[in-house]
Amino acid sequence: MSQKQNMRHDVRAGxxxxxDIERNYADLHPPFNPxxxxxxxxxxxxxxxxxxxxxxxxxxxxxxxxxxxxxxxxRGAAVTILSENIMGATCATVCPxxxxxxxxxxxxxxxxxxxxxxxxxxxxxxxxxxRGAQPFERQAYSGKRIAVVxxxxxxxxxxxxxxMAGHAVTVFEARDKSGGLNEYGIAAxxxxxxxxxxxxxxxxxxxxxxxxxxxxxxxxxxxxDLRQEYDAVFLGLGHNGVNRLRxxxxxxxxxxxxxxxxxxxxxxxxxxxxxxxxxxxxxGGNTAIDIAVQIxxxxxxxxxxxxxxxxxxxxxxAYEQEVAQTNGVLIKTWARPSTLEADDEGITAVTxxxxxxxxxGGAEGTGEFFTLEADQVFxxxxxxxxxxxxxxxxxxxxxxGRIRVDAERRTSLPDVWAxxxxxxxxxxxxxxxxxxxxxxxxxxxxxxxxxxxx
Length: 454
Fold this sequence. Notes:
- The structure is a single chain.
- This protein is α/β, with parallel strands linked by helices.
- The protein folds into three domains: 34-131, Fumarate Reductase Iron-sulfur Protein, Chain B, domain 2 (Orthogonal Bundle); 145-240 and 385-448, FAD/NAD(P)-binding domain (3-Layer(bba) Sandwich), CATH 3.50.50.60; 243-383, 3-Layer(bba) Sandwich (FAD/NAD(P)-binding domain).
- It has helices at 3-8, 18-24, 34-41, 51-55, 62-70, 74-84, 88-94, 117-131, 153-164, 181-184, 193-204, 223-229, 258-267, 286-297, 318-326, 429-448, and strands at 11-12, 145-149, 168-173, 209-213, 232-235, 241-242, 255-257, 275-276, 278-282, 302-306, 329-332, 335-343, 346-357, 363-373, 376-379, 383-384, 398-399, 402-403, 416-418.
- The strands form six sheets. Strands 4-3-2-5-19 form a five-stranded parallel β-sheet, sandwiched between helices. A five-stranded parallel β-sheet has the order 7-15-9-10-11. The protein has a three-stranded antiparallel β-sheet with strand order 12-13-14, with no helix packed on it.
- It is globular, with a radius of gyration of 23 Å.
Protein backbone atom coordinates (compact mmCIF):
# COMPACT_ATOMS: atom_id res chain seq x y z
CA MET A 1 0.00 0.00 0.00
CA SER A 2 1.30 3.44 -0.91
CA GLN A 3 2.04 6.14 1.65
CA LYS A 4 -0.90 8.16 0.31
CA GLN A 5 -3.28 5.23 0.80
CA ASN A 6 -1.97 4.73 4.32
CA MET A 7 -2.68 8.37 5.05
CA ARG A 8 -6.20 8.10 3.76
CA HIS A 9 -6.99 5.20 6.06
CA ASP A 10 -5.34 6.55 9.17
CA VAL A 11 -8.09 5.53 11.61
CA ARG A 12 -6.93 4.33 14.99
CA ALA A 13 -7.54 4.49 18.71
CA GLY A 14 -5.34 6.15 21.28
CA UNK A 15 -4.40 9.27 19.35
CA UNK A 16 -4.18 11.15 22.63
CA UNK A 17 -3.04 10.17 26.10
CA UNK A 18 -5.60 9.44 28.81
CA UNK A 19 -4.57 12.69 30.52
CA ASP A 20 -5.13 14.69 27.34
CA ILE A 21 -8.56 13.14 26.83
CA GLU A 22 -9.55 13.81 30.44
CA ARG A 23 -8.50 17.44 30.05
CA ASN A 24 -10.33 17.79 26.73
CA TYR A 25 -13.51 16.33 28.17
CA ALA A 26 -13.59 18.44 31.29
CA ASP A 27 -16.73 20.53 31.88
CA LEU A 28 -17.20 23.12 29.15
CA HIS A 29 -18.38 25.51 31.88
CA PRO A 30 -17.20 24.53 35.37
CA PRO A 31 -19.96 24.80 37.98
CA PHE A 32 -20.31 27.90 40.12
CA ASN A 33 -19.05 27.77 43.68
CA PRO A 34 -21.31 29.33 46.35
CA UNK A 35 -19.58 32.71 46.16
CA UNK A 36 -19.81 32.86 42.36
CA UNK A 37 -23.47 31.85 42.49
CA UNK A 38 -24.26 34.56 45.05
CA UNK A 39 -22.51 37.23 42.98
CA UNK A 40 -24.30 36.20 39.80
CA UNK A 41 -27.68 35.94 41.54
CA UNK A 42 -27.24 39.50 42.80
CA UNK A 43 -27.23 40.71 39.17
CA UNK A 44 -30.86 39.62 38.68
CA UNK A 45 -33.40 42.46 38.68
CA UNK A 46 -36.25 40.10 39.72
CA UNK A 47 -38.62 41.38 37.06
CA UNK A 48 -42.29 41.17 38.01
CA UNK A 49 -43.44 39.98 34.58
CA UNK A 50 -40.20 38.18 33.91
CA UNK A 51 -39.52 37.60 30.20
CA UNK A 52 -37.13 34.78 31.15
CA UNK A 53 -39.96 32.77 32.68
CA UNK A 54 -42.13 33.43 29.63
CA UNK A 55 -39.32 32.11 27.41
CA UNK A 56 -38.85 28.91 29.43
CA UNK A 57 -40.84 26.06 27.82
CA UNK A 58 -41.47 24.56 31.26
CA UNK A 59 -42.42 27.87 32.91
CA UNK A 60 -39.84 27.84 35.71
CA UNK A 61 -40.16 30.83 38.05
CA UNK A 62 -36.66 32.02 37.23
CA UNK A 63 -36.58 35.21 39.34
CA UNK A 64 -38.05 33.17 42.19
CA UNK A 65 -35.32 30.55 42.24
CA UNK A 66 -32.57 33.12 41.73
CA UNK A 67 -33.87 35.14 44.69
CA UNK A 68 -33.66 32.01 46.85
CA UNK A 69 -30.05 31.49 45.78
CA UNK A 70 -29.28 35.09 46.72
CA UNK A 71 -30.66 34.47 50.22
CA UNK A 72 -28.76 31.21 50.67
CA UNK A 73 -31.80 28.95 50.22
CA UNK A 74 -30.23 26.64 47.63
CA ARG A 75 -32.58 23.75 48.38
CA GLY A 76 -35.60 25.98 47.94
CA ALA A 77 -34.21 27.20 44.63
CA ALA A 78 -33.82 23.62 43.41
CA VAL A 79 -37.37 22.70 44.45
CA THR A 80 -38.72 25.73 42.57
CA ILE A 81 -36.90 24.55 39.45
CA LEU A 82 -37.72 20.85 39.73
CA SER A 83 -41.37 21.47 40.50
CA GLU A 84 -41.76 22.66 36.91
CA ASN A 85 -38.92 20.78 35.25
CA ILE A 86 -37.95 17.52 36.93
CA MET A 87 -34.93 17.35 34.59
CA GLY A 88 -33.80 20.83 35.51
CA ALA A 89 -30.28 19.59 36.19
CA THR A 90 -29.81 18.34 32.64
CA CYS A 91 -31.60 21.30 31.09
CA ALA A 92 -29.33 23.68 32.99
CA THR A 93 -26.49 22.23 30.94
CA VAL A 94 -27.98 21.41 27.56
CA CYS A 95 -30.73 24.01 27.06
CA PRO A 96 -29.97 26.61 24.38
CA UNK A 97 -30.35 29.33 26.99
CA UNK A 98 -28.81 31.80 24.57
CA UNK A 99 -32.01 31.45 22.51
CA UNK A 100 -34.45 31.10 25.42
CA UNK A 101 -34.28 32.60 28.91
CA UNK A 102 -30.93 34.36 28.66
CA UNK A 103 -31.70 35.85 25.26
CA UNK A 104 -34.67 37.80 26.68
CA UNK A 105 -32.99 38.74 29.96
CA UNK A 106 -33.34 42.50 30.42
CA UNK A 107 -29.62 42.69 31.13
CA UNK A 108 -28.83 41.26 27.70
CA UNK A 109 -27.80 44.53 26.07
CA UNK A 110 -24.86 45.85 24.12
CA UNK A 111 -23.42 47.27 27.36
CA UNK A 112 -24.11 44.29 29.61
CA UNK A 113 -24.57 40.53 29.51
CA UNK A 114 -27.51 38.37 30.60
CA UNK A 115 -27.72 36.80 34.02
CA UNK A 116 -26.19 33.32 33.71
CA UNK A 117 -29.48 31.58 34.38
CA UNK A 118 -28.36 28.17 33.16
CA UNK A 119 -25.32 28.09 35.41
CA UNK A 120 -27.36 29.26 38.41
CA UNK A 121 -29.89 26.52 37.68
CA UNK A 122 -27.12 23.96 37.58
CA UNK A 123 -25.72 25.25 40.88
CA UNK A 124 -29.03 24.75 42.65
CA UNK A 125 -30.02 21.40 41.14
CA UNK A 126 -26.58 19.82 41.38
CA UNK A 127 -26.48 20.67 45.07
CA UNK A 128 -29.81 18.97 45.74
CA UNK A 129 -29.04 15.87 43.67
CA UNK A 130 -25.60 15.54 45.28
CA ARG A 131 -27.24 15.44 48.70
CA GLY A 132 -29.58 12.67 47.56
CA ALA A 133 -32.57 14.56 48.95
CA GLN A 134 -36.06 13.75 47.63
CA PRO A 135 -38.26 16.82 48.14
CA PHE A 136 -41.34 15.32 46.47
CA GLU A 137 -43.88 12.93 47.98
CA ARG A 138 -46.37 10.57 46.40
CA GLN A 139 -50.05 10.81 47.07
CA ALA A 140 -51.92 7.69 48.22
CA TYR A 141 -52.18 4.96 45.59
CA SER A 142 -54.97 5.81 43.17
CA GLY A 143 -55.55 2.29 41.89
CA LYS A 144 -54.66 3.41 38.36
CA ARG A 145 -51.85 1.92 36.27
CA ILE A 146 -50.17 3.72 33.39
CA ALA A 147 -47.68 2.43 30.80
CA VAL A 148 -44.98 4.80 29.61
CA VAL A 149 -43.04 3.80 26.50
CA UNK A 150 -39.58 5.34 26.49
CA UNK A 151 -37.36 6.28 29.44
CA UNK A 152 -36.11 9.49 27.89
CA UNK A 153 -36.87 13.05 29.03
CA UNK A 154 -40.54 12.95 27.95
CA UNK A 155 -41.21 9.52 29.41
CA UNK A 156 -39.42 10.10 32.72
CA UNK A 157 -41.05 13.50 33.16
CA UNK A 158 -44.46 11.95 32.57
CA UNK A 159 -43.72 9.02 34.88
CA UNK A 160 -42.57 11.25 37.75
CA UNK A 161 -45.59 13.53 37.58
CA UNK A 162 -47.94 10.51 37.45
CA UNK A 163 -46.16 8.88 40.39
CA MET A 164 -46.55 12.07 42.42
CA ALA A 165 -50.29 11.86 41.77
CA GLY A 166 -50.37 8.36 43.27
CA HIS A 167 -50.56 6.30 40.09
CA ALA A 168 -48.50 3.15 39.47
CA VAL A 169 -46.25 3.60 36.42
CA THR A 170 -44.43 1.02 34.34
CA VAL A 171 -41.81 2.37 31.93
CA PHE A 172 -40.75 0.28 28.95
CA GLU A 173 -37.32 1.22 27.59
CA ALA A 174 -35.70 -0.35 24.52
CA ARG A 175 -32.10 0.21 25.70
CA ASP A 176 -30.30 -1.23 28.66
CA LYS A 177 -30.01 2.15 30.39
CA SER A 178 -32.63 4.80 31.08
CA GLY A 179 -32.28 8.48 30.27
CA GLY A 180 -32.70 8.53 26.50
CA LEU A 181 -30.91 11.45 24.91
CA ASN A 182 -29.46 12.50 28.27
CA GLU A 183 -27.71 9.14 28.64
CA TYR A 184 -26.80 8.44 25.03
CA GLY A 185 -26.98 11.62 22.98
CA ILE A 186 -25.46 14.60 24.80
CA ALA A 187 -21.86 15.51 24.09
CA ALA A 188 -19.75 14.12 26.92
CA UNK A 189 -17.96 17.43 27.50
CA UNK A 190 -21.33 19.09 28.13
CA UNK A 191 -22.62 16.60 30.68
CA UNK A 192 -20.72 13.60 32.07
CA UNK A 193 -22.51 10.27 31.99
CA UNK A 194 -22.66 9.96 35.78
CA UNK A 195 -24.75 13.15 36.02
CA UNK A 196 -27.35 11.68 33.66
CA UNK A 197 -27.53 8.45 35.70
CA UNK A 198 -27.78 10.39 38.96
CA UNK A 199 -30.71 12.39 37.62
CA UNK A 200 -32.53 9.20 36.58
CA UNK A 201 -31.97 7.80 40.05
CA UNK A 202 -33.39 10.95 41.59
CA UNK A 203 -36.52 10.79 39.41
CA UNK A 204 -37.13 7.14 40.22
CA UNK A 205 -36.59 7.89 43.90
CA UNK A 206 -40.14 9.21 44.16
CA UNK A 207 -41.31 5.59 44.14
CA UNK A 208 -44.15 4.01 42.24
CA UNK A 209 -42.18 3.75 38.99
CA UNK A 210 -41.00 0.40 37.60
CA UNK A 211 -38.60 0.49 34.65
CA UNK A 212 -38.31 -2.50 32.33
CA UNK A 213 -35.21 -2.08 30.21
CA UNK A 214 -34.44 -3.91 26.96
CA UNK A 215 -38.15 -4.01 26.08
CA UNK A 216 -38.88 -2.62 22.64
CA UNK A 217 -42.32 -1.60 21.40
CA UNK A 218 -43.27 -3.69 18.38
CA UNK A 219 -40.77 -6.42 19.24
CA UNK A 220 -41.32 -7.34 22.88
CA UNK A 221 -44.60 -5.61 23.59
CA UNK A 222 -47.48 -4.36 21.46
CA UNK A 223 -49.41 -1.14 21.88
CA UNK A 224 -52.68 -3.08 21.69
CA ASP A 225 -51.62 -5.20 24.68
CA LEU A 226 -50.58 -2.14 26.69
CA ARG A 227 -53.95 -0.53 26.06
CA GLN A 228 -55.67 -3.66 27.35
CA GLU A 229 -53.51 -4.02 30.46
CA TYR A 230 -53.14 -0.38 31.56
CA ASP A 231 -55.55 2.47 32.17
CA ALA A 232 -53.56 4.81 29.93
CA VAL A 233 -50.45 4.79 27.74
CA PHE A 234 -47.89 7.54 27.12
CA LEU A 235 -45.61 7.28 24.08
CA GLY A 236 -42.26 9.00 24.50
CA LEU A 237 -40.56 7.29 21.58
CA GLY A 238 -38.20 10.09 20.62
CA HIS A 239 -36.40 9.99 17.31
CA ASN A 240 -36.01 6.42 16.13
CA GLY A 241 -34.85 7.03 12.58
CA VAL A 242 -31.75 8.66 11.04
CA ASN A 243 -31.73 10.37 7.65
CA ARG A 244 -29.46 9.04 4.93
CA LEU A 245 -27.35 10.82 2.34
CA ARG A 246 -28.64 8.45 -0.37
CA UNK A 247 -25.24 8.27 -2.05
CA UNK A 248 -23.26 5.29 -3.29
CA UNK A 249 -20.61 4.07 -0.81
CA UNK A 250 -22.67 5.39 2.12
CA UNK A 251 -22.20 2.04 3.88
CA UNK A 252 -18.43 1.95 3.38
CA UNK A 253 -16.15 1.48 6.38
CA UNK A 254 -15.49 4.78 8.10
CA UNK A 255 -18.92 6.28 7.35
CA UNK A 256 -20.95 6.64 10.56
CA UNK A 257 -24.26 7.97 11.81
CA UNK A 258 -23.27 10.77 14.17
CA UNK A 259 -25.93 9.86 16.75
CA UNK A 260 -24.64 6.29 17.00
CA UNK A 261 -21.06 7.41 17.44
CA UNK A 262 -22.00 9.98 20.08
CA UNK A 263 -23.66 7.13 22.00
CA UNK A 264 -20.40 5.18 21.76
CA UNK A 265 -18.47 8.17 23.07
CA UNK A 266 -20.76 8.29 26.10
CA UNK A 267 -20.72 4.56 26.76
CA UNK A 268 -17.26 3.29 25.80
CA UNK A 269 -13.63 3.87 26.76
CA UNK A 270 -12.69 7.10 24.98
CA UNK A 271 -9.09 5.99 24.49
CA UNK A 272 -10.27 2.87 22.67
CA UNK A 273 -12.48 4.59 20.10
CA UNK A 274 -11.23 4.65 16.48
CA UNK A 275 -10.57 8.21 15.32
CA UNK A 276 -9.59 9.37 11.85
CA UNK A 277 -6.91 11.88 10.99
CA UNK A 278 -8.99 13.69 8.37
CA UNK A 279 -12.66 13.80 9.38
CA UNK A 280 -15.64 15.25 7.54
CA UNK A 281 -18.98 15.96 9.22
CA UNK A 282 -22.06 16.57 7.07
CA UNK A 283 -24.81 18.60 8.73
CA GLY A 284 -25.60 21.88 10.44
CA GLY A 285 -27.38 21.07 13.69
CA ASN A 286 -26.29 20.53 17.26
CA THR A 287 -25.61 16.84 16.55
CA ALA A 288 -23.17 17.85 13.81
CA ILE A 289 -21.45 20.29 16.18
CA ASP A 290 -21.33 17.72 18.98
CA ILE A 291 -19.68 15.00 16.91
CA ALA A 292 -17.27 17.44 15.24
CA VAL A 293 -16.07 18.88 18.55
CA GLN A 294 -15.84 15.51 20.24
CA ILE A 295 -13.90 13.83 17.44
CA UNK A 296 -11.47 16.77 17.50
CA UNK A 297 -11.12 16.38 21.26
CA UNK A 298 -10.25 12.70 20.65
CA UNK A 299 -7.28 13.65 18.49
CA UNK A 300 -8.47 14.07 14.89
CA UNK A 301 -6.05 16.38 13.10
CA UNK A 302 -8.45 17.96 10.62
CA UNK A 303 -12.21 18.17 11.19
CA UNK A 304 -14.33 19.92 8.59
CA UNK A 305 -18.07 20.44 9.09
CA UNK A 306 -19.91 21.09 5.83
CA UNK A 307 -23.45 22.48 5.65
CA UNK A 308 -25.60 23.00 2.56
CA UNK A 309 -26.75 26.53 3.46
CA UNK A 310 -25.28 29.48 5.37
CA UNK A 311 -24.35 29.90 9.04
CA UNK A 312 -27.54 31.86 9.73
CA UNK A 313 -29.65 28.94 8.50
CA UNK A 314 -27.82 26.36 10.62
CA UNK A 315 -30.03 24.96 13.36
CA UNK A 316 -26.99 24.90 15.63
CA UNK A 317 -26.94 28.18 17.54
CA ALA A 318 -24.30 30.83 16.96
CA TYR A 319 -22.90 29.89 20.37
CA GLU A 320 -22.57 26.22 19.37
CA GLN A 321 -20.88 27.23 16.12
CA GLU A 322 -18.42 29.30 18.14
CA VAL A 323 -17.70 26.31 20.41
CA ALA A 324 -16.84 24.25 17.34
CA GLN A 325 -14.59 26.89 15.83
CA THR A 326 -12.73 27.59 19.06
CA ASN A 327 -12.05 23.86 19.33
CA GLY A 328 -10.41 23.72 15.93
CA VAL A 329 -13.33 22.65 13.74
CA LEU A 330 -13.48 24.24 10.28
CA ILE A 331 -17.07 25.12 9.33
CA LYS A 332 -17.66 25.32 5.59
CA THR A 333 -21.09 26.45 4.42
CA TRP A 334 -22.98 26.52 1.10
CA ALA A 335 -21.95 23.05 -0.06
CA ARG A 336 -23.65 19.66 -0.25
CA PRO A 337 -22.19 16.17 -0.69
CA SER A 338 -22.46 14.76 -4.20
CA THR A 339 -20.14 11.74 -4.16
CA LEU A 340 -18.60 9.48 -1.54
CA GLU A 341 -15.36 7.87 -2.68
CA ALA A 342 -14.19 4.60 -1.15
CA ASP A 343 -11.85 1.69 -1.82
CA ASP A 344 -11.72 -1.81 -0.37
CA GLU A 345 -10.66 -0.49 3.03
CA GLY A 346 -13.25 2.23 3.38
CA ILE A 347 -14.01 5.87 2.74
CA THR A 348 -11.29 7.97 1.13
CA ALA A 349 -12.90 11.29 0.15
CA VAL A 350 -16.08 13.29 -0.20
CA THR A 351 -16.84 15.48 -3.18
CA UNK A 352 -19.13 18.45 -2.53
CA UNK A 353 -21.03 20.73 -4.85
CA UNK A 354 -21.09 24.40 -4.04
CA UNK A 355 -24.61 25.70 -3.42
CA UNK A 356 -26.39 29.04 -3.38
CA UNK A 357 -29.68 30.43 -2.11
CA UNK A 358 -32.50 29.41 -4.43
CA UNK A 359 -34.64 32.39 -3.42
CA UNK A 360 -37.20 30.19 -1.65
CA GLY A 361 -35.35 29.48 1.58
CA GLY A 362 -33.49 26.48 0.20
CA ALA A 363 -30.26 25.76 -1.62
CA GLU A 364 -29.48 24.82 -5.19
CA GLY A 365 -26.34 23.48 -6.79
CA THR A 366 -23.99 25.71 -8.75
CA GLY A 367 -22.28 23.02 -10.83
CA GLU A 368 -18.92 23.69 -9.17
CA PHE A 369 -17.28 21.06 -6.97
CA PHE A 370 -14.46 20.47 -4.50
CA THR A 371 -13.14 17.35 -2.79
CA LEU A 372 -12.06 16.72 0.80
CA GLU A 373 -9.93 13.71 1.64
CA ALA A 374 -11.44 11.79 4.55
CA ASP A 375 -10.77 8.61 6.43
CA GLN A 376 -13.88 9.12 8.56
CA VAL A 377 -17.23 10.69 7.68
CA PHE A 378 -20.09 11.45 10.08
CA UNK A 379 -23.65 11.95 8.86
CA UNK A 380 -25.65 14.41 10.94
CA UNK A 381 -28.37 15.47 8.52
CA UNK A 382 -31.32 15.02 10.82
CA UNK A 383 -33.37 12.42 12.60
CA UNK A 384 -37.00 11.51 12.35
CA UNK A 385 -39.77 9.42 13.77
CA UNK A 386 -40.51 6.03 12.21
CA UNK A 387 -43.97 4.77 13.21
CA UNK A 388 -43.12 1.20 12.20
CA UNK A 389 -43.10 0.09 15.86
CA UNK A 390 -46.79 1.00 16.14
CA UNK A 391 -49.10 -1.70 14.79
CA UNK A 392 -51.45 -0.58 12.04
CA UNK A 393 -54.54 -1.60 14.02
CA UNK A 394 -53.49 0.70 16.87
CA UNK A 395 -51.78 3.44 14.91
CA UNK A 396 -52.53 6.91 16.27
CA UNK A 397 -52.95 9.58 13.63
CA UNK A 398 -49.68 10.67 12.01
CA UNK A 399 -49.20 14.16 10.61
CA UNK A 400 -46.07 15.29 8.76
CA GLY A 401 -44.25 12.19 9.96
CA ARG A 402 -44.99 12.68 13.67
CA ILE A 403 -47.72 11.51 16.02
CA ARG A 404 -50.52 14.09 16.02
CA VAL A 405 -51.46 15.39 19.47
CA ASP A 406 -53.60 18.18 20.87
CA ALA A 407 -52.63 20.77 23.46
CA GLU A 408 -52.91 18.18 26.24
CA ARG A 409 -50.73 15.75 24.26
CA ARG A 410 -53.66 13.44 23.54
CA THR A 411 -53.40 11.32 20.41
CA SER A 412 -56.33 10.24 18.24
CA LEU A 413 -56.65 7.16 20.48
CA PRO A 414 -58.71 7.99 23.61
CA ASP A 415 -56.36 6.29 26.07
CA VAL A 416 -53.01 7.15 24.46
CA TRP A 417 -50.94 10.31 24.92
CA ALA A 418 -47.58 11.16 23.34
CA UNK A 419 -44.80 13.71 23.66
CA UNK A 420 -41.18 14.52 22.96
CA UNK A 421 -39.46 14.19 19.61
CA UNK A 422 -42.10 11.79 18.23
CA UNK A 423 -44.62 14.67 18.09
CA UNK A 424 -44.45 17.98 16.27
CA UNK A 425 -42.55 20.78 17.96
CA UNK A 426 -39.04 21.91 18.72
CA UNK A 427 -36.69 18.99 19.35
CA UNK A 428 -35.27 20.08 22.70
CA UNK A 429 -34.91 18.24 26.00
CA UNK A 430 -36.80 20.99 27.82
CA UNK A 431 -39.71 20.74 25.36
CA UNK A 432 -39.84 16.96 25.81
CA UNK A 433 -39.95 17.41 29.59
CA UNK A 434 -42.84 19.84 29.25
CA UNK A 435 -44.68 17.44 26.94
CA UNK A 436 -44.37 14.66 29.51
CA UNK A 437 -45.56 16.94 32.31
CA UNK A 438 -48.59 18.20 30.38
CA UNK A 439 -49.52 14.68 29.31
CA UNK A 440 -49.27 13.39 32.88
CA UNK A 441 -51.55 16.14 34.16
CA UNK A 442 -54.04 15.36 31.39
CA UNK A 443 -53.90 11.63 32.13
CA UNK A 444 -54.47 12.28 35.82
CA UNK A 445 -57.48 14.51 35.15
CA UNK A 446 -58.95 11.98 32.73
CA UNK A 447 -58.52 8.95 35.00
CA UNK A 448 -59.69 10.75 38.13
CA UNK A 449 -62.61 12.52 36.46
CA UNK A 450 -61.34 16.04 37.11
CA UNK A 451 -62.17 18.98 34.87
CA UNK A 452 -59.45 20.16 32.46
CA UNK A 453 -57.29 23.03 33.66
CA UNK A 454 -58.52 26.42 32.45
